[in-house]
Structure formats: structure tokens, C-alpha cells
Amino acid sequence: MDAVDFVTNWRACRSRRRGTRARLVALAILGSVTKASPASESSTHVETAAAIQFRSDVTVELVRSNASDADVLFAARVSTQGEQSLAAAKDENLDTSRSKGLINYLMRDRHGSPFEHNSLTFYVQAPIFVFREFMRHRIASYNEESGRYRELNAVFYVPGHDRNLVQVGKPGAYEFHPGSAEQTRLAVAEAERIATEAYASYRRMLEAGIAREVARIVLPLSIYSSMYVTVNARSLMNFLSLRTKRESSHFPSYPQREIEMCAEKMEEHFAALMPLTYEAFNENGRVAP
Ligand SMILES: Cc1cc2nc3c(=O)[nH]c(=O)nc-3n(C[C@H](O)[C@H](O)[C@H](O)COP(=O)(O)OP(=O)(O)OC[C@H]3O[C@@H](n4cnc5c(N)ncnc54)[C@H](O)[C@@H]3O)c2cc1C
Predict the structure, then answer these.
(1) Interior CA angle at 277 toward 79 and 253, to 5°?
(2) 255 in ligand 1 pocket by Cβ < 6 Å?
(3) Tens digits of residue pLDDT in 231-251
């Protein structure tokens, strides 16, 4: 008999999580013949079951932060107030035209360093093709789960039904439009089929004793990973300017939708923590200082 048999049972179960679709698929993998009973000489199957999950969303959680508009003010005012600027910024009512004016001036004239004295740490779950784009942003700190030291979870991305599928226009400025019903069905079916087959292949290799770092080579970029990413407001604004599409931007960008989904969630936290800085960022065309 074959060393490994696998049986895939589709068990569609739609759950709505944060407005997006997640589907669970039970994948039962019958392991290889691992031992022969000396008494009976018969072989036994070791059965393991792993659930494949398909997601169309991303997770972004703010897990730590030390970031406020006052952090920008004390850093900027050291130039005129010296060591007194820290205490002065703590006492100051931030909702003053003076504070707003200074932050707006720094943003407009691109005095960027006062926006660096703060920190935001996010926990992110997204497919690896998103992480590949994410990590091009070098002025951030990253730590990601390891495919060498742990078995990767069977969680894969499939485009949601609201994900535009058809690109028109020129490179660098593509527009994306909804796909037909047939294109949508095909994109989802192919993404799910490949993920299911690839994960079964991964499991077969693990069950055969092959190292995780080798077995993972069959897994597609749609598999989810997780990481912590730490940025300051200046590096976050650079990220947001490039990874969100806004008509109001002085330099419009055309990011892939899936990294934009991460950026939008990060932007919400930034806006809540540093409202004056966020306002100035938008009023000055979303150009990172
Ligand atoms: C829509 C879009 C399409 C893209 N397409 C491609 C593509 O086809 N191929 C590809 O390879 N990449 C592509 N990228 C990635 C892009 O080229 C950048 O690597 C990415 O956006 C990170 O930008 P950054 O360098 O400004 O960010 P960070 O690395 O975070 O740097 C922030 C800023 O710090 C300064 N800086 C950082 N490192 C250096 C350095 N070594 N020297 C000098 N200054 C530095 C720069 O001012 C920089 O803007 C794309 C990005 C976007 C948004």
C-alpha cells in the first residue's frame, strides 16, 4: 500500500468573523505505516487530523504603545526650551491651536525627527505574500514565527467575494474591478485546491520524518504567518503613504489590497493615539515627514 493515504472531507462551515468569510475544512490525513505489531504482523495506521481554515481577512492588533501627540511636542521644543520641554509637554493642554500649529508646521516642512520619539507594536496575522511586501519597509522592527521551529498552521488566504479580481490600466497605476461570477468561483476554487493539496503534501513529509524546514518548501504564499512589528509614527506614516490608496494623497499609491487591509487597521490605531499628528498627516497630503 502507499506509504501515506489522505482523504479530504470538505465540511463547509461558514463563519463570519469581523465581516469576512472564514471556512473550515476538515482534512483527515492517514499517516504512513508506522509500526508493525510483532504479534499479528499487521500494520496500523496512525491517524492525525488537521483542520484547514480559509480566511479572507487579516488580523492587526495593537499590543503595546507609547505614542501620543505630546511626544512630538516635547521632542520638537527641546530646541527652544531645553530640558524643560518634557515637563511642559506633559502639562500642556494638547487641544490648543499652538500645539496643532507646531505639529502641522513640522509635518508641512518635513521636520521628521520629532515624530520618532514614540513606539507602536502590532501583532499581525496575514498571508506570507503580504509579509513579503511588509518587510520591504526597513524602518520597522520585525519578529515572525518560524517555519523551522514549529509546524505551520493550516490557515490559507482565499479572496473574499468583495475582492476585485480584474486589473485594468497601466503598471504602477492599475485599477481593479469586480470579477464575473465565474472568475470569482475559479479564483476561490483554485486557491482552496492548491492549499489543500500542498498542506497534505507538507503533512506527508512531516509524518515521514522530514524536517519542517524542508517540508515547508511545498507550501504556497497564501499560507498565513504571524509577526510582531514595531514602528514609530514617522515610519508608520511612510508605510501608510505607500500602502493605502487615497485620492487626497499628494503622491497616490496603488498598493495590493491585502497589505492595504493591514495598513487600514494600523491607521485606525494611529489616529486614536495621535489625533493631531494624524490630522496634520492628512492635511498635508499624507506625505511622511
Ligand atoms: C505600490 C508599490 C509597488 C511596489 N512594487 C515593487 C516592485 O515591483 N519591486 C520591488 O522590488 N519593490 C516594490 N515595492 C517596494 C518599494 O520599492 C519599497 O521597497 C517599499 O515601498 C518600502 O519603501 P521605503 O524604502 O520608503 O520604506 P523603508 O525601507 O521603511 O524606508 C523608509 C525611508 O527611509 C529611507 N531609507 C531606508 N533605507 C534606506 C537606505 N538603505 N538608503 C537610503 N535611504 C533609506 C528612505 O527615505 C525611505 O523612504 C513597491 C511598493 C509599493 C508601495
Answers:
(1) 120
(2) yes
(3) 999 999 999 999 999 999 999
Q: Where are the domains of the chain?
A: 5-55+153-222, 61-122+227-283
Tell me, in angstroms, the distance from the centre of ligand 1 to residue 136's CA.
Answer: 6
Q: Indicate which residue's Cα is closest to atom 53 of ligand 1.
A: 242
Instruction: Judge residue 220's burial from the number of C-beta atoms within 10 Å of its C-beta, 0-12 exposed, 13-18 middle, 19 or more buried.
Output: middle
CB of 135 shorter than 6 A to ligand 1: no
243 belongs to the catalytic site: yes
Tell me which of 235, 238, 246 to substitute to probe ligand 1's pocket, judged by most ligand atoms within 8 Å of the beta carbon.
Answer: 238
Indicate the CATH number for domain 61-122+227-283: 3.30.1360.170
pTM for the whole structure: 0.85
Q: Which of 128, 158, 129, 120 is nearest to 144 (CA)?
A: 128
**252 CB within 6 A, ligand 1:** no
Q: For 4-51, how does the pLDDT look when each residue is reduced to its tens digit (9 = 90+)?
A: 333 333 333 333 333 344 445 444 443 332 333 333 333 333 334 468
Over the stretch 148-204, which tens digit does the pLDDT of each residue have?
999 999 999 999 989 999 999 988 878 899 999 999 999 999 999 999 999 999 999
- For residue 187, count other CB atoms closer than 10 A to its CB: 15
In the DSSP assignment, the letter for residue 250 is: S
Atom of ligand 1 nearest to the CA of 255: 1
